[in-house]
Design goal:
Helix content: 10-25%
Distance between the termini: 37 Å
CATH class: Alpha Beta
Shape: globular
Number of helices: 4
Largest sheet: 6 strands, parallel
Radius of gyration: 14 Å
CATH topology: Leucine-rich repeat, LRR (right-handed beta-alpha superhelix)
């Protein structure tokens, strides 16, 4: 029902239980700068549906418990991202490598993920010097 709103820049679907099919409808929103898709049933395949939204500056995919490191791989092309929340997912230290291209990233939330501080610090030191705000706990 929203696909005709192609000029949309901000969309908050917090708690809307969006599925992979629902994310396929978001491809029309090429101007999206912020997107909240918390608490849904999105898998890595659903994140692939939004990977071409390269104007995205803020992305919140928290509480989508089926997301893995593959979701970070899809996100890696969203180089305008300043803020990313992927808390309460199955993301691990191994997936952090996919964040390396996100040079504008200043805020990252990975609460309740299998990620450790030493790996975050290594990422900051080698690839993301602007990453100032990190939440793990």
């Amino acid at each position: 029902a929203l696909t005709s709103l192609t000029g949309l820049t901000h969309l908050d679907l917090f708690g809307a239980r969006i599925t992979d099919y629902g994310t396929s409808c978001l491809r029309y929103f090429k101007k999206l700068q912020s997107l909240e898709l918390c608490g849904g049933s999105i898998t890595d395949a659903g994140v692939k549906n939004i990977k071409d939204l390269t104007s995205m500056m803020s992305l919140n995919l928290s509480q989508n418990s089926h997301l893995t490191d593959g979701a970070l791989e899809s996100i890696s092309g969203m180089t305008a991202l300043v803020s990313l929340n992927i808390s309460n997912t199955r993301v691990t230290n191994a997936g952090l490598q996919h964040l390396r291209p996100l040079k504008n990233l200043t805020s990252l939330s990975l609460q309740a993920c299998k990620v450790t501080w030493p790996e975050i610090r290594k990422l900051q030191a080698t690839a993301l010097p602007n990453l100032a705000g990190v939440r793990l706990d």
